[in-house]
Amino acid sequence: MTSSQHGTSKPDSPPTPDTSSSSTASPECKDVSPSSPSTQWKTTLDIILYTPKQCRFDPANPPRFSIGLNLLFAFAGAFTVANLYYNHPILHLLAEEFGISNERASLIPTLAQAGYACGLLFLCPLGDVFPRRLFVLALVLFTATVWLGLCLTNSFAIFCFLTFLTAVTTVTPQLMLPLVGDLAPPHRRATALSVVSSGLILGLLFARLLSGVVTEYTSWRNIYWLAFGLQYLIFALLWLFMPDYPSTNPDGINYFRILYSIFQIFTTHPLLVQACLVGFCTSTTFTSFWTTLTFLLSAPPYEYSTVIIGLFALIGIASMFLGPVWSRFVTDRFIPLFSVILGLIVSLAGTCIGTYIGTFTVAGPVIQAFLLDFGIQTAMIANRSAIYGIQPKARNRVNTAYMISAFCGQLTGTA
Fold this sequence. Notes:
Helix content is 69%, strand content 0%. By secondary structure, the chain is mostly helical.
């Protein structure tokens, strides 16, 4: 901020230089041009760091968590987490593009998941130290900019490296969820979390569907260009509307102490241990079903095409819209454990039905997909609502512990 902005007078202007000697001045003494790269970078940085008036934090009038902001976080989460799954239906096309085997192409989703795991462990806990608005904006901008390389490169090695790098910074939804826990009132926390979590699962399922359809009729690069544009759209929307919320630990914490405290929190709160165990088991079931569903539907008696198999994602998407309704009328009104148990019962019922009738009628996998997705989402939202009350100043670390257990479950389900 300049001195004039503080109301003080400007200092006297420096003497006008002798124009007769300007032609002999060394290049080092010349003024920096307003269009020089350093000036342009400074201007760009000032714009990124600027906080619109409506987003600034006022202790006397904290930001209200509106339905618009809830939907914005859901939209941002959906098309951010989708970055991890665009490659799943097009691995054979990527193998042809880079002239590699299908086995080597399978390294791409593996690196994406590995990068996401690194981001969960090493970046998400920093949400308890840094202001969330600036941290989230920086990660989204970095991801969007680096994503350009994925759209342009013809090198498989570079494509793999950039896939891993962008996956590390694609953890912004896991920073938004604890922020929702801070902003939403306690009696509406489960509903607000359900809307954002529905966006994450919607992004997971929609990415596979959208990628399969787009690449069926156009180049595979178009889905990456679409993701590139969506990342910058998300950045612009968050810059305009995401409220600035102060750090929960303004005095700072040693980074290694942050990582160690995740283990401490996990071992001192039985509620978190219970939630992590449930998250591990439900994630295993969810991933195992959607991984093996392709083999079931492509074999006799079904022998469906890739497009029809991809449309099964719409079943999961349909069940996601019931999550916020259930949270509003059940999870927010009763103890979270009630919704966890009901969610597990629904998931178990769906698994039993799909297992016994799925081999001779398509109604089996349809019913299983709907009940499994709905039950798992119900249990997950209830668990999040419960664990976010453990340590308000460590919600990002609590979320990290929970997500690591869920991520390990996903790996187990795909094994």
